[in-house]
Design brief:
By secondary structure, this protein is of the alpha/beta class. About 45% of the residues lie in helices and about 15% in strands. A 4-stranded parallel β-sheet has the order 4-3-5-6. Strands 1-2 form a two-stranded antiparallel sheet.
Length: about 200
């Protein structure tokens, strides 16, 4: 027993605490929740985790999460194919879709520039974006990275890369608070930031 808990419990707490945004206190709560949950519910959870791990991949076009080679948004011919909204991760798409302001396509960078963490342009899906704008009828790129230091750095880098493309490049307005992730903003804030993009 470690810290008064059986080894299997401390191992589970340790695994939960490896997850982003889960501290030791939350990890303990999750472990005790699992312990107190009916076996059938735990089996369902394990099955869902296995299914996601085996079936979810990145869209071959935009890097959104998908069960197929192409995500539902890229496959939807009703979407405005002249506008691509660039987000840091799939959760950015969820936030934009929930707001209902963007009917175009997306491009997921799968991260943001962070020299301190050793994440440079080659670690993101920037080259793929540049290929897309050459091969698709794109007229506008809307940059919707987070309003954090990393998100701002990424936005500035993208603006520099896209400047000579002849495509209109805009950035969400400051309706989203500085230092905030796009997914944490409410729908009205995202709508205002999108409408007032510059």
């Amino acid at each position: 027993m470690a810290g008064g808990l059986p080894r299997s419990m401390t191992d589970l707490i340790q695994e939960f605490s490896k997850m982003p945004g889960i501290g030791s206190h939350s990890a303990k709560k999750l472990a005790f929740y699992i312990l107190q949950t009916e076996n059938e519910e735990v089996k369902k959870l394990l099955s869902n985790i296995r299914t996601v791990k085996e079936n979810i991949r990145f869209c071959g076009v935009c890097n959104n999460l998908s069960e197929n080679d192409m995500c539902e948004i890229c496959a939807d011919r009703k979407r405005d194919r002249s506008r691509i909204c660039v987000v840091s991760g799939p959760s950015g798409i969820m936030a934009m879709e929930k707001s209902g302001v963007h009917n175009g396509l997306y491009h997921v960078l799968l991260g943001e520039l962070s020299p301190i963490d050793g994440i440079g342009p080659d670690d993101l899906k920037i080259k793929e974006l540049l290929v897309r704008i050459k091969n698709e009828p794109v007229k506008e790129i809307v940059i919707a990275t987070d309003f954090t230091t990393e998100g701002e750095t990424t936005a500035l880098y993208l603006m520099g890369k896209l400047r000579s493309s002849g495509i209109k490049v805009s950035r969400l307005a400051r309706g989203v608070p500085a230092g905030a992730a796009l997914e944490s903003a409410d729908m009205a804030t995202i709508q205002r930031a999108f409408e007032e993009r510059k």
